[in-house]
Amino acid sequence: MQISKLLHSCLLVEEQNTTFLFDPGIYTYEAKVLHLSSLVKLDYLLITHEHADHFHLPLVKEIAQKFPAVKIVTNQSVAGILAKENIHAAITDTIITVEETPHEKLWDKQTPENIAITIFNKLTHPGDSLHFIKSADILALPIAAPWGSTTEAVNKALEIKPKAIIPIHDWMWKDEIRTGMYQRLKTFFAEKNIDFKTPETGKIIEV
Q: Which CATH number applies to 2-206?
């Protein structure tokens, strides 16, 4: 499986001649790190929930225009938003497992509908949740957020015990902080026989 992180929680994944894009949010859009002009194909667009850092409508419109046959899989709430733009989205698919997983609590607003998405039974992306109870061998783990802490994320990973971790949801860290934290986490998880990956924006990781 080839995985590229395109800031925060946005992942571009290639597996079995199929290309997936997870959670293209506003940070990815504003930083212009998703180069649609050079993307040859996109089979699936997967959106865990409607927060702007995971779902930026202008970017989704651009994606749908470039790839009109792309299959969008998301939750009912996001599907409703897209329907108003005449963009069709499904909530199930044959090679994708979708599970309702609660968004972590926020102090100042209601939490949206959130889903965990697993592709080919190999990679799980839980959106903004640490309440999932299982994962595929590769886990996209949210490690920093207003609703949680790195310690909580680490404890969830130790509970789930994936074989590999792709860190997500860390746009708010400065680059030097991110680099240092990645190395600390890599060393820690190596002692637990878990392969913590240290992605660089746009660089392909083989897992």
A: 3.60.15.10
Q: What are phi and psi of 145, to 5 degrees?
A: -170, 160
pTM of the model as a whole: 0.97
Partners of 14 in beta bridges: 2, 19
Closest CA to 131 of 150, 119, 112, 116: 116
- Per-residue confidence in pLDDT tens, the chain, 207 aa: 999 999 999 999 999 999 999 999 999 999 999 999 999 999 999 999 999 999 999 999 999 999 999 999 999 999 999 999 999 999 999 999 999 999 999 999 999 999 999 999 999 999 999 999 999 999 999 999 999 999 999 999 999 999 999 999 999 999 999 999 999 999 999 999 999 999 999 999 999
Domain ranges of the chain: 2-206
